Amino acid sequence: xxxxxxxxxxxxxxxxxxxxxxxxxxxxxxxxxxxxxxxxxxxxxxxxxxxxxxxxxxxxxxxxxxxxxxxxxxxxxxxxxxxxxxxxxxxxxxxxxxxxxxxxxxxxxxxxxxxxxxxxxxxxxxxxxxxxxxxxxxxxxxxxxxxxxxxxxxxxxxxxxxxxxxxxxxxxxxxxxxxxxxxxxxxxxxxxxxx
Length: 195
What we know:
single chain, 7 helices
């Protein structure tokens, strides 16, 4: 290693003496002549001492200074307003399902509710009439396309079920009307259509 580092003969002898004595090796060996070996040893020791003092990081503070200041004082917990987790879940579900935020959905729901309040519920009898009409139109379209045989029995069965439900509703309504008519008229003036 000494040959590779191109040390002078004096530097090599000085390093070998340090190894024989069991001392520490100097960090730097200045090129000096062999006439001044006494000056070489003291010249190296002060820089080593200075280096150890400079090795400490200047931005670090001693422990006493840290403890005297507020570095070891823990911040007090300051609770903040809690979020309603259920509302957050609903909001995220709406965003993932519809791609819209809850605020938009709430506004739309409020508008839909006002519209629903304005529009009375459609009568079940009228719904059945519309369903029967839709099935008849569907059957006519399928017959026009040449698929009438395939759907005829299914559609006619559904239509007969809807008509049966309409008859049941009609009976109930007629009985309700009869009962209200008998209540409105006194018992002496019975006008029963069966008589």
